[in-house]
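F.,

This is the one I mentioned.
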């Protein structure tokens, strides 16, 4: 898992933001499949994983700015269609800002029904959560069985 985490971080550090974004958005699928009894990811497993391990970081002013359902919908839009919108999101669109956006440091802010996310902060937060998950998942029998078939292992 560490190799995958490192590759996503490396892509971000080298300004390969599309690669980093696609990598980080598929991470909940990968993690949820590894801990699954059957070794496969599903929409619900991915959503549940994100809600358990990541969403709490985005509970702001009494609401979840980003939860598993929104993240999964955005993942589908970006990975399969290259779009920043999806009919199952609470927002008109989600935009990821990178460090080259001078003078703008917005993270988890909403304006005109658009969620703005700092891509480097998002990557760091999701990877931190995935590393925490990985420590506990290693003890899981399903994880151990599925990890033997993991491509990055």
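My design for it:
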């Amino acid at each position: 898992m560490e190799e995958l985490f490192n590759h996503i971080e490396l892509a971000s550090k080298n300004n390969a933001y599309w690669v980093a974004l696609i990598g980080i958005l598929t991470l909940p699928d990968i993690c949820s499949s590894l801990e699954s009894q059957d070794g496969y990811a599903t929409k619900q497993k991915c959503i549940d994983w994100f809600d358990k391990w990541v969403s709490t970081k985005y509970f702001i002013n009494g609401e979840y700015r980003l939860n598993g359902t929104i993240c999964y919908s955005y993942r589908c839009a970006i990975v399969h269609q290259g779009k920043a919108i999806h009919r199952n999101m609470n927002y008109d669109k989600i935009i990821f800002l990178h460090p080259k956006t001078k003078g703008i440091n917005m993270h988890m802010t909403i304006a005109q029904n658009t969620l703005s996310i700092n891509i480097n902060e998002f990557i760091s937060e999701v990877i931190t959560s995935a590393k925490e998950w990985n420590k506990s998942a290693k003890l899981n029998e399903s994880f151990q069985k599925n990890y033997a078939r993991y491509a990055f292992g």
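The longest helix spans residues 17-35.

Talk soon.
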